[in-house]
Amino acid sequence: MIKTKKNNKKEKNMKIKTKGKIITSIIVIAVLLPLSHIGCVNDNGSDDTKGGVGTSGLAYTHTGIDDCAVSIGMATATEIVIPAKCPEGHNVTAIASPTVDVNYDVEPPSIIFNGGFAGKTITSIKIPDSVTSINDIAFVECTSLSSITIPDSVISIGYGAFNSCTALTSITIGNGVTSIGDSAFSGCTNLASIIVDANNLNYSSENGILYNKDKTTLLTYPSAKGAVTIPASVTVIGGSAFISCTALTSITIPDSVISIGYGAFNGCTELTNVSIGNGVTSIGNGAFSGCTALSSLIIPNSVTEINDNTFYNCSSLTNVSIGNSVTTIGIRAFFECIALSSVIIPNSVTDIGEYAFFNCTDLTNVSIGNGITTINQSVFGSNKKNVNRLTSVTINATIPPSFGIIVFGNSNDYINSALKIFVPVGSASDYREANNLGSSVLYKHRIHAIGCVKDNAEAGSTCDCN
Length: 466
What we know:
By secondary structure, the chain is mostly beta strands. It has a domain at 1-223: Leucine-rich repeat, LRR (right-handed beta-alpha superhelix) (Alpha-Beta Horseshoe), CATH 3.80.10.
């Protein structure tokens, strides 16, 4: 369990600054191994073990009748040799996870790893054939580790196991691995060589890319740079596959791809061009979050849902075309897309999630299709005073949708004084009675019928504003 100074949290795809660097992906694991256990710790720092010579000072945790997990302990060596047995004669079958302390008293919060091998100055490590499991975040931020060979005995590589090992240039994966956790190699920006044993039944590799066996799922491409075209064999881009590939400038996704996983391109800060094929139906949570150089995007008609945080903080995004099959725009989907000036939400959309366009301070014009049934809390709101430029919102639904509270802001300081809300002719009176919209003194006087020169059929109007 993660220990924090304020509270316990489980978060994914977060970035937390530590020691001047950014650890990308996830540091939070639901259950972590303890780091010591009576009767199975190398207290004397001896090199003599019953299973061969190992590095002095390593610590061992009893995990079963005959098994133990190894962690850094008091070892100070940079070249680590893990023995097959601990001093008590138990088989070393796992490389332990660290515990994680998050210090919320500094900004941004900092992380301290305790145990495992996380964050240590290790240049090489030899893993014996007794090891079957490399646990979650075991080697996260070992920034001096340049290469590693994972023996055939290893069955599982945990979540974020080698995350942010920035010096890692090559890794060899044995034939026994059946499970590789998400973000296992994320942030390994120099990992150009991934070699998977040809006899491995679950994984394969080519040109620095890790795939499933038949190369239909692209799992990770940590060293991606420049312009990249996804191979036509791929149907799924895995979660965090390109996360924090800061040298990636362009990505072409072919029609063969059906799904883009959560956080797939999160933090690709130089990504300026994205071409999404017409086969994509699902774009995962936070898939393009933090792509701060992305200026324009076409979401094809094949896509049915824009998930939570998908384009969160795409701060250069000025133009987005939303396909006509999208039914849901998720929570914070376009949060703080501060350069976005207008958006057309098609008739297919029925639900816009909370804070979907929150703090889009350059947004001036919004058109919402006639299929809308729910506009949730603070969709077009802001927490920045006197900067909201939204002047025109057209809602084409004849029946008012359900409105969340403070859809456009919670006071006149946060709402553009020129804001007008246009609705279908004959529906204005219904909108003026709608809960959280017309019932709010902030919005009621802003509601106008589409096409009316002035509200309430005043002089110059040629239509029924009610």
